[in-house]
Amino acid sequence: MTAADTLFEPAGGSSDVGPVLEVSDLAVSFPSESGRVQAVRGLSYQVSPGEVLGIVGESGSGKSVSSLAVMGLLPSQARISGSIKFQGRELIGLSDDQLSKIRGRKISMVFQDPLSALTPVYTVGDQIAEGLLVHGKGRVTKQAAAKRSVELLDLVGIPNAAERAKAFPHEFSGGMRQRAVIALAIANDPDLIIADEPTTALDVTVQAQVLEVLKTAQEVTGAGIVIITHDLGVVAGFADRLMVMYAGKAVETGHVDEVYQRPRMPYTLGLLGSIPRVDADEKQPLVPIEGQPPSLVDLPQGCPFAPRCPMAVDACLTDEPPLSEVDNSGDHYAACIRSDELGAVEVQADEASVAAAVDVAAEVFGVEVIGEPEVARIPRDQRTVVLDVRDMVKEYPVTKGVVFKRRIGTVHAVDGITFDIREGETLGVVGESGCGKTTTLMEILGLEKPMRGEISVLGQNVSALNGRSRKAVRRDMQVVFQDPMASLDPRMPIGDVIAEPMQVHGIDKEQIAKRIPELLKLVGLRREHADRYPAEFSGGQRQRIGIARALALEPKLVVLDEPVSALDVSIQAGVINLLDELKAKLGLSYLFVAHDLSVVRHIADRVAVMYLGKIVEIGDVDSVFSSPQHPYTQALLSAIPIPDPIKERARERIILTGDLPSPANPPSGCRFRTRCFLHASLPPEKQSKCIEVEPPRAVQAPDHEAACHYAEPRQVV
Amino acid sequence: MTGFLLRRLVNYVVLALVATFLAFTLASVTFDPIGVLQQRNPPPPAATIDAKRHDLHLDQPIPERFVTWMGGVVKGDFGQTIANRPITEELGRRAGVSLRLFLLGITLGITLGVLLGVISAIRQYKFSDYFATIFSFVVLSTPVFVIATLLKTGAQSINNSIGSNVLLFTGETTPGFSGSWGAALVDRLQHMIVPTLTIVLSQVAYYSRYQRSAMLDVLGSDFLRTAQAKGLTRRKALFKHGLRTALIPMATLFAFGFGLLIVGGTFTERIFSWFGMGDWLITGIQNQDTNITATVTLFIAVCVLVSGWLADVLYAALDPRIRI
Ligand SMILES: Nc1ncnc2c1ncn2[C@@H]1O[C@H](COP(=O)(O)OP(=O)(O)OP(=O)(O)O)[C@@H](O)[C@H]1O
Ligand code: SF4
Ligand code: SF4
Ligand SMILES: [Mg+2]
Q: Which CDD domains match (chain B) (predicted)?
């Protein structure tokens, strides 16, 4: 008997065969200054016992609101109608007291942001025990609850659970907190677990761990699961059925395989085509869905997707298409009047597969392959070096005390990294948060002599720069930041925002006035946008403004810090395409920092993988992604979900154990050894080398280096 | 942890000493008790003046005077007033009067303030919230003596409408009151209500504003949702998880709130003829009496010290994240 069996009732065996959750015609609206926001407009779905339903949709489509409605946790100003039946019992209209008896016992929820999901002032163990105690009044003793909460923490993979249960949430890492929240969610053996973007705030490696825990949780409790995400990859291997939401409604539902392979609604198709794929062999163009989701205050008549739909015809504008069955499948529904025609396009492809669906998407949305820049034809080593970083080191002191600070240690944020970028080339830098990506960027952008090592920009060593030449170099190297809103001054019309760097560099007024419309056009905005303020633009448009501003001075090198990670996938695709186009057109070089490896695979020519302040693997993207040599790269890649249910289910994940060690106190020898699965599988005489000797970066293949004593290629995607 | 609190305590003691020294110096430099003496008509003989100057240690440099005075304080002797009476004679009684006012004011003020703030936050944009907001702004922007005068007038009209003097607002007790032990207590209570209310009002206004915003931050927080999601009722989640967390920033405010209290207290004592420390400070300044001024300053500094240190202890107790 496993620990899980003793903790939970065996799954199944219950006599009720009906769905655990039955939502019908649910509508939720909120008052707002500009009118009532119709956040959910007639949503119906069911979840059977033990079934996993994935809900996908872009930001604002009503995913969270509909699930909070099920929990009865909507704010009081929300108006709600329709029906939510849980195990046959109507939940709408129940009092808070009645609902609180169901919440946490029968239905539980995992929220998006693990960092703020636990109360900071109570220990993790106490918070889990509280969940057991509120539902077990008189039956469960404090000691029993405490003991059970330790068992639960152990079950979700918290090492040393008895000890850690006494810790406060701030002493847990993000991934551990999310595990604790899952432990809390399964504490009372619920029949339904709702997980609202449970992994969005986490690194890929941690995401893979947490999904694994969620799967375990599902297995042991036998609960139905509703998993909400905006990432089609996350649910592909986990969900049984999928529901796509748009503007507060379900627009397509069905078995995952069906929906991924034969999407029958242009929106689903577009979503599928907009995702960069880490497993792409050849470079496929991404499908951007132009425009923005409609305002939910007064929706125009007809199909809400019509303004963005490439297949829209006049008939689409008369009535909103209802969700109707496609192909007499009995299970697959889509809300589109032209879904049959989509089916016809697919039939032309010989066999249904996600790849075929993506091709259909590219065709329907009419995207073109973006060419390579001219310089790319010249062999790499003959091209000019735009950026050259050698053995760069950056350390931060760790201090203690408020008035009299004393140094108690050193954080080795970047510990001797070497790379270069050639003309017309994109280098992607990837790694978990805290590995030193941003520090690397900031050091390069600072144009100051590094603590150790050298930085040269366009052949100029930065330590030899004086005031004037530094300004000239700054002109050739521009930056685009992650958060488009934070980097734009809200009181400046965007024309001025774009003009600013040119003014700083003393370009005359006339020329600036001429350049602004050119730049706007270049990034896909219109000339008249120049007079508007940042608040009037959507996230994707703001990021375009940021790019226009960076390009104003015709730089040679553009440094991009997570430029698309704050954007929805469909919007992200447009920005990535734009960056690709600009590179081809202007012969730019990019230093592209991202935590999303699929984006990097799509956009970069070369990639550097960082771990704890060091580059562990670097080289040509195709070579690194198709035959990664370093165990860390292998783990990272294997953690990335692929939006293809069949491939995804067949994949074997390398789950990294534990968290990133503190960069103030990195392990001896190979820094990765504390989490290295290869190291763990080695005989002791081989292990000692990892512990004692730091592995040097060694050439493994043409333009492909890795720093591991026992490097060997392994296919993981 | 204990080390942290001890270090803070040492800091506060040093600060209290510095504050007292500054007050002492300032008083010594500006006050001119001899001048007052000389202006009497007829002027006292030179020998008397010299003797007075010696008594008051005016022939010593200021730092030396401070050391002499502090030396006495350590032994429990706060020196003499100008009128040659030992300060200790009045100190105990006056400190008692003030502390009664302060402690009651602060306890009621914090409790009611926190409650009002919580209600305000939970009922954001409802009538009770608007009411609390307006109340706080009016109280905080009105000088204490105006509030006190208004309360006096209000109390008077209540008395008039009842037809007997229930609320009393001059002095701490009725002069020459004699009666049973119980009757004396009632008499004191009758005198206490209006002055305490004066203090409590501004404390409530102050704490409720901050508690409201701290609570609003917490109301939208994820952990409150988690608490409800695990099966706590909204009310229980609000108090056990929400309020508990929203109290943390209050601890720091406590130290500052005390300053407000003392300023308010000084005026209040005067207006209601309570002979406490605040009243004494004003008397001391009027009589150009350095020792009284320094003693009251020391008293206030010690009060602030204790409240500041209490705030630290409270903060550490409330927030596990700073327990080191
Ligand atoms: N308390 C509220 N008051 C007013 N409007 C709200 C409230 N909560 C949500 N909304 C609105 O309801 C709509 C749906 O929001 P919801 O949070 O369900 O989207 P979502 O699909 O979960 O998006 P995301 O991917 O960003 O989490 C949005 O337009 C949002 O602005
Ligand atoms: S109904 Fe028309 S507008 Fe809507 S998705 Fe189908 S084709 Fe596009
Ligand atoms: S050197 Fe050893 S520990 Fe480091 S990655 Fe290679 S096998 Fe793992
Ligand atoms: Mg959401």
A: TM_PBP2
